[in-house]
Amino acid sequence: MMFGAANRKMIVLWQKAGLRFMPFADAATKDVPLSRLLRLALFQVSAGCVLVLLTGTLNRVLIVELGVSVALVSAVVAIPVLAAPLRLFFGYRSDTYKSVLGWRRVPYIWLGSLLQFGGLAIMPFALLLLQSQTLGPSWAGAAGASLAFLLTGFGLHMAQTAGLALATDIVPRDKRPRVVALLYVMLLAGMIGASVFYSIFLVDFSSKQLIQVIQGTAVFTIALNVIAMWKQESRDPNRTSKDRELIGFREALADYRRDPGTLRLLLAVAVGSAAFSMQDILLEPYGGEILGMSVGQTTLLTGLWAAGTMAGFGWAACSLNHGAHMYRVAARGLLIGIAAFLGVIFASPLGLDGLFYAGAAGVGLGGGLFAVGTMLAAMGISKRADSGILVGAWGAVQATAIGVSLLLGGVIKNAVNGFALDGALGTAMDTASSGYLVVYHLEIGLLFICLAVLGPLTGHRYRQDSGKDMRFGLAEMPG
Questions:
Q1: Distance (Å, rounded) from C-alpha 309 to C-alpha 471?
Q2: pLDDT, greater one: 293 or 238
Q3: What is the pTM of this model?
C-alpha cells in the first residue's frame, strides 16, 4: 500500500516536472502526442536551413569570395519574393483541394519539397557559372542562378504554408498558439544549427565545398520534409470530394478582410518585417568587407540573430502570460530594433566587433517580439484563424515585405556607394561603409513608421472567444 501511494506521488511529480521543463508538453493531446508534433515540426527545421543558406551564407560568399555585384546578388536572392504573394493562394488551394485520396495539405508539402530540392540541386553550378563564365551566352549564369532561386523559393513557400495549415488542422483550437510557438522555435533551431554547420564547413572556402554544402542541404531538407509529413494527415475523401460546395477565392479573401483592424495589422506586419529584414543581405558582407571578419565569423551572425529571436519569443510569452497587450509587445520589439541598429551603425567607427555582434542579436530580439505580437494578434483578430488562407495571408505579407526589402537594401547600398566613392556626396561619405550605413538608417526610419501604424491598435482590446487561451506557450521555460 505504501509502495503504491509513493508510486502515484512520484508519477504526479514527474507530470508536473514535465510541464515545467518541457515548455511544449501542454501543446500535446491524446490524439496528437508531443512526439508527433516534434516530427511535424521538422519541416520548419528544413525551412530554417534553407533560409540561412539563401539570406545569410550565399550572399556573403557571392559578394566577398566570388566578387559578384551586390545589386545582382540582391536581385537573385530576392527572387523568391515572386512566390511570396502566392502563399495566400497556396493556403486557399490547400483548404479547397479536391482529391480522391482525401488529402489537402500533403500534396502541397510534397510538391513544395520537390521544387525546393530541384532548386538547391542546380544552385551551386549556376552560382559558379555566374561568377566565372567562359562559354555560352553572357546571360546564362544569371538565368541559371535565377531559376535555382525561383524553384527554391516557390518550394519553400509552398511547403511552409501547407505545413503550418496542417499543424492548425490536427490540433484543437485552444492548442494552436502553443503549436505555432513550437513550430517557430524549431524554425529558429534549424537556423542556428545550419549557421553553425555552414560556419564550420565553409571556413576554408572552395568551389568544391560550395557544391558539397548546397547539395548536401538539398538531400537533408527533403529527407526532413518526408519524415515530417509521414502519416500526419488523415485521409478524408468526403472533405476533398469533387462534388462538394466551395467558397470562391475572392469570397474567402473578402471574408478574411472583413474583421476590423485586419488591414492595419497587415500593413504594420509589412512595414515592420521590411525594417527588420533589409539588413539581411548586408549584415554578413558588412562584417566581412568593413570589419574584416572571416566567412565563419560572419556566418555565426545568423546564429546570434536566431538566438536573439528565440529570446524575444520567450520574453514575449512571459509578458503575454502576465497580461501584456499583444500590440504593445510588438511595439517593444520595434524600440529594441531601433537601439540594435544604432549599435550596428556605431560598431564600425568605434571598431568594436562586440558591439556589432550585440546589434545583430538585438535585431533578432526585437524581431522576435514583433513577430510574436503581430502573429498572435492575427490569430486573435480573425474569425478564420483555423484556415489556410489566414496562414497564407500573414505569411504572404511578411515574406513579400522581406523580399522587397532585401532587393532594395542591395540596390540602395550599391547606388549610395557608387556616388560616395566618386566623391559626389562629399569627403565625409567617401568610404566603403557609406552604403551600408544609409540602409541601416533607413531601417530605423521604417521602424518609427511602423510604430505610428501600430499605435492606434494598442488601445483596442482583443475579441476572444470565451475560454479561448491565446498564451504562446514559451513562458513555461525552466526557471
A1: 18
A2: 293
A3: 0.68
**Least trusted range by pLDDT, from 168-177, 262-271, 359-368:** 168-177
Minimal CA–CA distance to 402: which of 66, 153, 44? Answer: 153
Determine the Cα–Cα distance for residues 135 and 155; give it in Å rounded to an integer.
Answer: 30
Degrees (nearest 5) of the Cα angle 70, 75, 78? 120
Long-range contacts of 416-424 (CB under 8 A, 24+ apart): none
DSSP string, 213-227: HHHHHHHHHHHHHHH
Mark residue 396 as left, alpha or beta (left: phi above 0; alpha: psi -120 to 50; beta: remaining): alpha
Q: Among 353, 80, 100, which residue's Cα sits nearest to residue 236?
A: 100
Query: Rounded distance, CA 387 to CA 385, Å?
Result: 6
Between 304 and 15, the more confident residue is 304
Distance CA 151, CA 79 (A): 10
The C-alpha R_g of the chain, in whole angstroms, comes to: 23
Share of the chain above pLDDT 70, in %: 69
Asked whether 280 and 399 are in contact (CB, 8 A), the reply is: no
The Cα–Cα gap between 281 and 107 comes to 32
